[in-house]
Amino acid sequence: MVMPPSPVGLRAVSNDGSRPRRGNQKPNDRRSSRPGNKPGRGGAPTGRSQGGKPGRSQSQGRSSGPRRDDDRRPERGGPKRNDRNERRSRDERRPDRDLAGPQQWGRIARRGAGNMEYEDPETIAQREEYKQRKAERARRKAERAAETPEKPQRPQRERDLPAASDLQRQANRAVARGRKGAPARDRRRLPGRPHPVKDPAIALKKTVGESRSKTLVRRLNEGAKAFEAERFADARSALGPVVKEAPELPEGRELMGLTLYRLGKWKEAIEHLESFRELAGSTEQHPVLADAHRALGNWADVDALWAELGEASPSAELVVEGRIVVAGAKADQGDLTSAIRLLEQNWKPPKRPMGHHLRRAYALADLYDRAGRAPRARELFSWVAGHAPDLADVQQRVKALS
C-alpha cells in the first residue's frame, strides 16, 4: 500500500522516532540525534541545549530538564563583602556624628551636619589636658608671687614747676642757638685796594679771540640795557653766554649776580657776587651780597661781610646800605633793640637828604613801628614822605599811624 505524501509544512518522523535527515546531514551525525537540539538556519543545529550553556552536551554538563533546588551550587559561608563593609561602616559611626540638625532636614542633610560637628575624642582630650596644664602654671605663678616679698616703692618727689622767667630765658637761649646757623664760608682776604678795572672788550678779546669777543661784548651791553629797563629775564638770557665763556670777567659776574638778585634767585646770585668779590677785590656789592645771605638765613655771613665792609672804609652811601641790611638781619632774628640801636647810631636828619638817607630813615621808622613806638615811627615816616612821597609805601604807613 502506498502511503500518501505528508502534507507540506508538517514535520515527518521516522519509524524509530528520530527526525529525518535534512540537507547534507550524515546518518551518524550526533548533533541531529541529540534530544532538545533545534536546527538552525540551513538545518544546522544551534549547539545549545535547553537550559544548558553553548557548546556543552548533555553528557558533559547539565541535563536539559528543569533545575532542581538540590542542583544549585551551595553559596560560600558568611555574609557577602558588601554586607560586611556596610555593617563595619555602620558600626564605626558614632551616635554624636550620625545625625544633627532639625528632623525636617532629612537623613542625608542631618548626617552631613553631624559629620561637620563631629570632633575627635582624642582632640578633645588634648585640649582639656592643655587647659589643665595652663591652670597649673597659673596656680604655681600665683604661689611664687605670694611667697616673694614686695619691694618698697620709693616715694615720689614733688617737682617744683619752673617760673615763667626761667622758661622765657631758656626759650631765648634755644632761639639764639637756632639762629646762629651755619658758620660763615671761608673767604680769601681782600687786598688793600681793589684790582684795577680793565676794558671788558680787551679782556674778552684775550679770552675768546677777536671774532667771538665782538659777539660777547654786544651781549654784555644788551644785558646792561635790559637790567636798567628792569627786564631782568632778558638780561639773564643775554648775559648767559658771557658768563659761560668768560667766567673770569668781573663785569659779567657782577651784572649776572645783580640780575639774579632782582629775580629772587638768592643762591645763584650769591655764587656770582662772591666770584665778583674775589675777581675785583672790591666791597662795592657787599650790601647786595649780604642781603642775599640774609634771605637764606646765613647770619654768620652777614656779620662777616659787614665787618669786612667796615675795614674797607668805603663811601658813606655804601656803609649806610650795609647798615640797613645788618639791622634787618638782627630784626629778623628777633633782636629789635640791637637793630634800632644800629640804625640810630650817628643819625641826624640832614637838611638836604639823599637817597641813602631816606632809605635809612624809612628802615628806622619801620623798626619803630614793629617795636610798638608808634609816635616816633609816625614822625619819621612823615619826614620821609615830605622828601620822597613815592618811596615804597610811605604814604600808606603815615595814614595807618595817623
What does this 3D model show about the protein?
The chain is mostly helical and 402 residues long. The chain has a domain at 195-282: Tetratricopeptide repeat domain (Serine Threonine Protein Phosphatase 5, Tetratricopeptide repeat). It is built from 18 helices and no strands. Residues 1-18, 23-27 and 29-65 have low confidence and may be disordered.
Largest sheet: none
Uncertain runs are 1-18, 23-27, 29-65
Reported CATH architecture of the domain at 195-282: Alpha Horseshoe
What's the shape? elongated
CATH superfamily caption of the domain at 195-282:
Tetratricopeptide repeat domain
**What is the radius of gyration?**
62 Å
Brief synopsis:
With 402 residues, the protein is an all-alpha fold. It is built from 18 helices and no strands.
Feature tags:
0% strand, Serine Threonine Protein Phosphatase 5, Tetratricopeptide repeat, 58% helix, mainly alpha, 18 helices, 402 residues, disordered N terminus
List the helices and strands and how they pair.
Blueprint: H1 30-33, H2 81-92, H3 95-98, H4 107-117, H5 121-147, H6 164-180, H7 200-208, H8 210-228, H9 232-245, H10 250-262, H11 266-280, H12 286-295, H13 299-312, H14 316-332, H15 336-344, H16 355-370, H17 374-387, H18 394-401
Helix pairs in contact: 7-8, 8-9, 9-10, 10-11, 11-12, 12-13, 12-14, 13-14, 14-15, 14-16, 15-16, 16-17, 17-18
